[in-house]
Amino acid sequence: MLLKTRVFDLYIGRYRNLTELAKAMDISVSQIYRVLEGKRNINRKFIIGAIQAFPGYKFDDLFYFVPAKPTAEIANVPSVVETKEQIG
């Protein structure tokens, strides 16, 4: 399971921009953008910062889980049946 966030939907109207959100969360702007773009997973500091920046919200309001997608390496591993057929 992967942890995703609703922070990027909720900040509009509360903070002027992502820089202001980052400051309220006490994290770097680059971390905000990496999470937004899916280049970085949500970590403990991001979670604590989100709760700090949105004090009226519960964890479930700010975050949700989605199933993890299989990685390319796992997806390309041949099954036992395929391997037996190749061996012959």
Quick structural gist:
With 88 residues, the protein is mainly alpha-helical. Helix content is 52%, strand content 9%.
Based on the model shown, name its key terms.
88 residues; mainly alpha; 434 Repressor (Amino-terminal Domain); two-stranded antiparallel ribbon; 7 helices; 9% strand
Report the top-level CATH class.
Mainly Alpha
Q: What percent strand? A: 5-15%
Write down the Rg.
Answer: 19 Å
Return residue spans where pLDDT drops below 50 for at least 5 consecutive residues. none
Number of strands: 2
Order of helices and strands: EHHHHHEHH
Largest sheet: 2 strands, antiparallel
Helix run count: 7
* Outline type: elongated
Number of domains: 1
In terms of quaternary structure, the protein is single chain
Structural class: mainly alpha
Q: How is this structure best described in words?
A:
- With 88 residues, this protein is mainly alpha-helical.
- The protein has 7 helices and 2 strands.
- It has a two-stranded antiparallel ribbon with strand order 1-2.
- α2 crosses α3 and α2 packs across α4.
- The relative contact order is 0.19.
- The mean pLDDT is 89.
What topology does this entry show?
Layout: E1 2-5, H1 7-10, H2 18-25, H3 29-36, H4 44-53, H5 59-62, E2 63-66, H6 72-75, H7 80-87
Helix pairs in contact: 2-3, 2-4
